[in-house]
Amino acid sequence: MMTQTPERHAVVIVGGGPAGLAAAIAAHEAGEHDVLILERDTQLGGILNQCIHNGFGLHTFKEELTGPEYAARFIDRAAELGIPYRLGTMVLDISPERVVTTVSADRGIERFEAGAIVLAMGCRERPRGALATPGYRPAGVYSAGTAQRLVNIEGELPGREVVILGSGDIGLIMARRMTLEGAHVACVSEIMPYSGGLKRNIVQCLDDYGIPLLLSHTVVDVEGRDRVEAVTIAEVDERLQPIPGTEVRYPCDTLMLSVGLLPENELSREAGIELSPVTRGPVVDQSLQTSIPGIFACGNVLHVHDLVDFVSQEAAAAGAQAARFAQEGVEPTETRGIPVKAIDGVRYTVPSYVDPQKMDDTLTVRFRVANEYRNRYVSVYLDDERIQHRKKRVMAPGEMEQVVLKRADLMERAGVSSITVKLEEE
Amino acid sequence: MFDVVIIGAGVSGCAIARELSRLDCSVCVLEREEDVCCGTSKANSAIVHAGFDAEPGSLMARLNVEGNRLMYELSRDLDFRCDQCGSLVVCVSEADMAGLELLRQRGEKNGVEGLRIIDRDELLEMEPNISDEAVGALWAPTGGIVDPFQLTVALAENAAANGVEFRFCTPVTAIEREDGAWSVTAGGDVVRAKAVVNAAGVYADDIHNMFVATEWGKEATGADGAPTVSREPLTIVPRKGEYYLLDTTAGSHLRHTIFMLPTIMGKGVLVSPTVHGNLIVGPTATDIDDKEAVNTTPGGLAEVSSKCSLTVKNVPLREVITTFAGLRAHQKNHDFVIGEIEGAEGLFDCAAIESPGLTSAPAVGRMVAGMVRQRLGLAEKAGWIGTRVGIPRVSDLSFDEWNELCEKDKAYGNVICRCCRVTEAQIVEAIRRTPGARSLDAIKRRTFATAGRCQGGFCTPKIMEILERELGVPASEVTKRGPGSELVVGTNKDRLATPDADQRGGEA
């Protein structure tokens, strides 16, 4: 029965994917050895396990690894450190007092008391329903990640004649994957005038296989009562509305969607953690701490990343901060630090607050831009004073950007009330 | 030979089957789809109507009010979700307040209890998100919401527990009179019965017209004044309704079902919480020709999204998780067509069951079973089981209660659908019950798995595995909604492995 007292751990990590693993390792390496990873799947590694293509780890390991290989580096390191983990264990509730309730087949419902918690639940795909795409709802409409799991884990072929809507990275990867597995991919249609994925994926997954990328196009009809029989694609105007007369019907048996990823923050919301309407992830400060003291967030649950290397870096920071919190506690402060404003083409920043007293000597601030930009400057202002001004040849919404804040810059200017990150033409 | 064959396993057919299962008779339900609840019953507003809408004196009015009264008790007997949250008909112009009063009077004539006109202040107190234009409303405390999937499945399971046989994938293609009984050709087999009930939804006209086309003598009919149905051919028009279903994050936007009082500007759409905590918005009403056309359309969806703001402020449509369309079985007289067909002893119509058909189902079941009982002279049987226990819903339980289930069966600890918190044990039970789930959608109707915000993105492959295991079929035979809707088409490289596979036309 559950009347037994909850198990206590210094750091409890929710999720054993790339973020959770890196956070656990960093917490351990920061000297906190009482770390527990809770993972709902039957193995560690998260979504990387189904990402069997290469290209992971260029920044971290200076070599091209597949997803499972990249995950294995972290899983092996965690094993070396003897970090315990629970598989098949789904977190049901996180309380503001940092009690975590889980369920698993082996142990039923359990409660854990945590000195600090790291949220590393990752993200989910936007489904077709979220687009309100007109038409039927037959079998054969898959989000790209679901199709990827079927192909790469189960060995099942979801379809033979495929149309892909959305040019997110998983969609691009799956265009190539389906081609290699013997299916024909008619096109990738993207409603925006630019791709949502990495440039390298467009080249390696579409161009190399002659798969057309139709920018400013979307699906306006899905046919087929039982199984997809055809989809109709139309060009859209600048307001993203389909242009009558531009419809082209593609007979196919599969519509695959890669139309965005959403951080999975149901647990965070129920815990009362403040979420950003832009990223849909928690609002965090320089230590990646959420609005609830002792609860930290990293990886795709915080904001959707482009490269797993950045997930690992960010998660390592969160893990180390969680370890510090568990060991030292942190005295509550009146304010959350100086707010970081994202304007003029910068959609958001992570973190949203910076307390110069508590930050390390340097702090990486990550962000995404709102559009495709050429030859713009990324600028950082402390109040009205511009302290950084760096030209970037190309920036696109599909790729994450960053600036590095120096603690010294902030300490030199007492009383700074805002930090602004924006794009400028000159 | 069965005593009774029921054509159609929608909510009406299943309600009739359950009522007949009280009696000493053999009953077979023939369903063209692979499961119960596949037509109109699965795609509607999921509302328990109070009964103020229908024309006083109509069958619709009587059965709606009676069905409403029966529904809440039935939900306890058969363990399905139903919530008497009350409904509000919102008036958005002072000039139309008189219309609200007329509606109240009509409701009273129909026997609806507790109807009351409320002013804007009271309305605002009940529903803070009501439109700024709203001037008053008709409050109907007996209105409510129901899970139409669970209702239909519960009726079917209870009927089956009392001996009713269900046959799926059996579309009826002919009905003939033979040796004093009826022969129904369905899915290649011939099923014989003393009485046949037509509960075929949007196809009820086809079945009715098969009935009246058969040769039979002009026998005495309508014993003891039971209702009869004309031998004239029937026409059912599929009336399409399109809907938005919003995430549970939007569910708290309202506490009651909100209708709009029709104005000269037209009829609005309803906005309502669902028993699962979602918000439902719709429907449109478009008469179409195609009885299979459950597709949503750009025009229909645009209509819903613009009309909902007439009664409710800031409907969070961006929280949409799916859109869908359903077809009502509309008939030009806009009343239910229920009765024995003139001169055709033992042939019963239960047709044109459009809104409020879901609410009326418990009463429709009683009425039709009563007519059949009278015709065949059936007696009540001993040992009838009047209650049914649903599949446990861990998402509704306290953690202690959930833990107790885990101690009995570990599979209650294995969460398969993370959005709606549905466990392996629930899915397995959905498959093993009678009539059991055979497809992804059938599991959704019984457990709500895949019906959450990721719409099956994570759990589809896992549910496929459970279906493969439980049904003993390969992945290529697992379907979304019956034969023809297979979820995968083969295995990786199956056509690349043997270069001439294409020539041989070899599906794996």
List the keywords.
heterodimer, A: 426 residues, alpha/beta, 9 helices, B: 508 residues, FAD/NAD(P)-binding domain, D-Amino Acid Oxidase, Chain A, domain 2, 3 domains, 24 strands, disordered C terminus
Largest interface: A-B, 57 and 62 residues
Stretches of chain B where pLDDT is under 50 for at least 5 consecutive residues are 503-508
> What is the CATH domain class of the largest domain in chain B?
Alpha Beta
Kindly provide the radius of gyration of chain B, computed on alpha-carbon positions and rounded to a whole number of angstroms: 23 Å
Q: What percent of residues of chain B adopt helix (DSSP H or I)?
A: 25-40%
Global geometry of chain A: globular
What is the strand tally of chain B? Answer: 24
Q: Termini separation of chain A (Å)?
A: 66 Å
- Please give the largest β-sheet of chain B: 9 strands, mixed
For the sheet with most strands of chain A, the description reads: 7 strands, mixed
- What percent of residues of chain A adopt helix (DSSP H or I)? 10-25%
CATH superfamily of the largest domain in chain B: FAD/NAD(P)-binding domain
How many structural units, i.e. domains of chain B? 3
Terminal CA distance of chain B? 41 Å
Assembly category: heterodimer
Please indicate the percent range of residues of chain A in DSSP E strands (runs of 2 or more): 25-35%
E-strand count of chain A: 28
Topology:
The complex is a heterodimer of chains A (426) and B (508).
Chain A: E1 7-14, H1 18-29, E2 35-38, E3 54-56, H2 58-61, E4 65-66, H3 67-81, E5 85-86, E6 89-94, E7 99-104, E8 108-119, E9 123-125, E10 141-143, H4 144-154, E11 156-157, E12 161-165, H5 169-180, E13 184-190, H6 199-206, E14 213-215, E15 217-223, E16 230-235, E17 248-251, E18 254-257, E19 261-263, H7 266-271, E20 295-297, H8 308-328, E21 338-343, E22 346-350, E23 353-354, E24 362-369, E25 373-382, E26 385-395, E27 401-406, H9 407-412, E28 419-424
Parallel strand pairs in A: 1-2, 1-8, 2-5, 8-20, 10-18, 12-13, 12-18, 13-14, 21-28
Antiparallel strand pairs in A: 3-4, 6-7, 7-8, 9-19, 15-16, 16-17, 21-23, 22-24, 24-27, 25-26, 25-28
Chain B: E1 2-7, H1 11-20, E2 27-30, E3 47-48, H2 59-78, E4 82-83, E5 87-91, H3 97-110, E6 116-119, H4 120-126, E7 136-140, E8 144-146, H5 148-161, E9 165-167, E10 172-178, E11 181-186, E12 189-198, H6 204-213, E13 228-229, E14 237-246, E15 257-260, E16 270-273, E17 279-282, E18 286-287, H7 298-307, E19 320-330, E20 337-341, E21 347-351, H8 357-376, H9 399-408, E22 415-417, E23 422-423, H10 424-432, H11 440-447, H12 460-471, E24 490-491, H13 494-497, H14 501-504
Parallel strand pairs in B: 1-2, 1-12, 2-9, 5-15, 12-21, 13-20
Antiparallel strand pairs in B: 3-8, 4-8, 5-7, 6-7, 10-11, 11-12, 14-17, 14-18, 14-19, 16-17, 20-21, 22-23
Helix pairs in contact in B: 1-5, 1-8, 2-8, 10-11, 10-12
